[in-house]
Structure prediction request, 885 residues.
Amino acid sequence: MEVILWMIIQVIAIALAAPFFDGVARVLRARLQSRKGPPDFFQTYRDIIKLYKRSRTRPRCAHWVFDYAPYIMYGLGATMLAAMPITYNSYPSIGVSDIFVIIYVGAFLRFVFGIASIDSGNPFAAVGGSREQTLTIFVEPVMIISLIVVMCLAGTSDLVNIRAMVRDGEIGYFMPAFAVASISFLWAMYVESGRNPYDLAEAEQELQEGVLGEYAGSDFGITHAAFILKQFAMIGMFLSIFEPWNFTNPILALIVFIAKAGIFYVAAVFIDNFGARYKLLTSFKQNATFALGISAVALILYAVGA
Amino acid sequence: MKKGENFINKLREKITIKDVSRMPEEQITVTVDRSDLPEAVRMLYYDMGGWLVTMIPNDERPLNGNYAVYYVLSMEGGKMTADDELSSDEKCWITVKAYIPANDPTYPSVTRLVPAAVWYEREAYDMLGLVAEGLPDPRRLVVSDDWPEGLYPMRKDSMEYNFRPDPYSHEEEPEYEFYHPEGEGLVDVPLGPLHITSDEPGHFRLYCEGDQIIDADYRLFYQHRGMEKLAENRMNYDQMGFLAERVCGICGYAHATACIEAAERAIDMEIPRRAQALRIINQEIERLHSHMLNIGLACEVTGNINAFMHIFRIREFSMELAQLISGGRKTYGNVVVGGMRRDVNGKEIRRGLELLDTMETQLKEVWEAVMEDDSQIERWKGVGVLDRQVARDFSPVGPNVRGSGFKRDTRYDHPFDFHDEIDFEVCYEEGGDVFARETVRYKELLQSISIIRQCFELMPSGDIVAPHNRKIVPQAYALANNEAPRGENIHWIMHGGSQKVYRWRCRAATYNNWPTLRYQFRGNTIADAALIVCSMDPCYSCTDRVTVVDVKSKKSKILTHKDLKRYSQTLKDSPLKGM
Prediction:
């Protein structure tokens, strides 16, 4: 019961803190682009609040999928965060914090995004949504293989247990397979968090925005917040497995986690700010093949018992 | 032998020429019978190395009881190979003119032989009701889909300038017939007229198989402003320059200059050298900010916001330069018949030179950074290729044609104003893709900086306005050319009585560039569609539509209205089949 309470607390805390780091990232990005940018670090809060106050606009041809998708996506993002053993890592596992649960909740979020795009009736949104699905085909294998290595090493798919084993040194970077898997997982995490050059889920000129091009007002605000949550969840997953050192006191652990995830979130600006977006079937494919190669190396290393 | 005599002699071998006249010395008008029109234009275009620059349909019934069409060709050589080019003393303008009787307003279509004429002939029908017999694409071009049948706005007697037909209700508005290919699993992706991708009104239909664009069609002219009619009715020459500036929000100065210079050339008026140099400077400033805008946008549509922002930071210097030289960030309001309205002083020139230095250094830095970015180059290379033969057939202009390896620049082919004293290189690149076009633009930026510098250094002293001592000669006509950022702008003016223009034909650069876009789209992915449109640097205020010409088999097919209607209803047995 206490675990569930902590889950709720950590989701609320992260949901409240995440826009701050988005604001920091935006200020930093503006500086790198030699423009003035937002006046302070709180612009994302103001944006979401402003958007939330506005009424909804929906295409006449859309159905309930389109109407509820922002809330479903927000809920799924929150679920992913709740499943991260951040505050309750010293409690015995209740089986929710499972790698498979998190991955499939993430996949479900992507699925909802895709069908909402198609439901909007805008062909451009549909193409953007289907691009999002295609992306999965390239990212999922890398992520799964990296995690399989970890799960095989640990002998379990429960994050709480894996975390404890890494922290206690039963498995860890002294194992080459684990170290290599962390590299390929880092790539997958970056792609999943939807950043340039792989994807920039903002209303953009190309196709990438998918259904975001059709949402307005409160829907757009919620979807925007949902994507920030999802990014934090992806970073959280990396931190839980590959960088699990943290306090056992739930409050302290939460603060440290938010700080660590925030640093990752903001640091990604140094990657996503430069260069052009990749094309799915050319540059992206090459990139994904390379990452897949790294994850395969991890798997081979595990198989040969190194 | 006079300039252009050799072309006329060659024409005489096959065609009866009724009359030859020279308005300005290097602009020759050849009058032929309307039945000889297609062959005459074809011979000049393909056999003698001409490019179609504009076509002017004109209502001359008050003068001689006929309509007239003027096909203007720039004789400069085909330029398909390096030595396929005329020497500079042979280059000239040849206008093929044909009268069309008022009681039978038809003429054989030139488009069947010279595809480049397609839009002009569409427009001639919309505006004057002149029917090009055998035109492969008989859809409307300029007027809206709900425009009443039988009302032709450019006819002198057709309408009051303030007459407007009653608008259709939204439900009854006729649909525009888009051409589309057939096949299983083709998705029709509409883009525009209102879309986040493009902030200007143009409607594109992309026919895609999966991610790939198989074919495209588009409808433009959503905002036709009827400027040519407005000028004929209400404007005097002092006002016309200001109207012409409003053709475009970016390259307005080039339009104003071309318009006013056409009026000046028609009465053979020489303007002071200092005014000429100032006009060149302003045009080059316009090129600076326009090219930087385009390179920036070409980065931005691929997600490279960082490069976009830095290029825009540099662009600000060019706006400051514009303010210094012309008095406003937009170079508007400076050109008048006979010269300029605003002079520059030595202090401004010194500051201008400083700005040019800053701009040059910073531009080189940013371009180097963009070139080092492989992901950016990869997005540009091999995308939106403009085939050389397509380019030759459709007479595109500006960086669009120079990106395909053609050495076509009106400043070089037909130097005007102060250009005879200035050294500059025509920048062209092989490849025909977005990368080539952007590289051309970058090189032109450096050339522009050098041209402005030379103008500052060679700046002649003296007046900036010629004394008013010339009479406007009614029915005298001439064309003026200049190189706007997007390519060659051509304005053609026929003077009328009482200080007013009889006919003003404005042909903006993009008008010649749109028709090739369809070929540039094919085979690319939808994600690149916005980039391809962007790299063409379109100016929506100019332009519509595409003809059915298969480049490979060189076949073109005539579609009757019936065919098209049936096809658009049943979508079976495409009339384009077998091409």
Summary: The first strand of chain B starts at residue 17 and ends at 22. Confidence is low (pLDDT under 50) at residues 541-579 of chain B. Chain B is about 40% helix and 20% strand. Chain B touches chain A at residues 187-191, 195-197, 211, 299-306, 308-310, 313, 373, 375-376, 378-379, 525-528, 530 (CB under 8 Å).
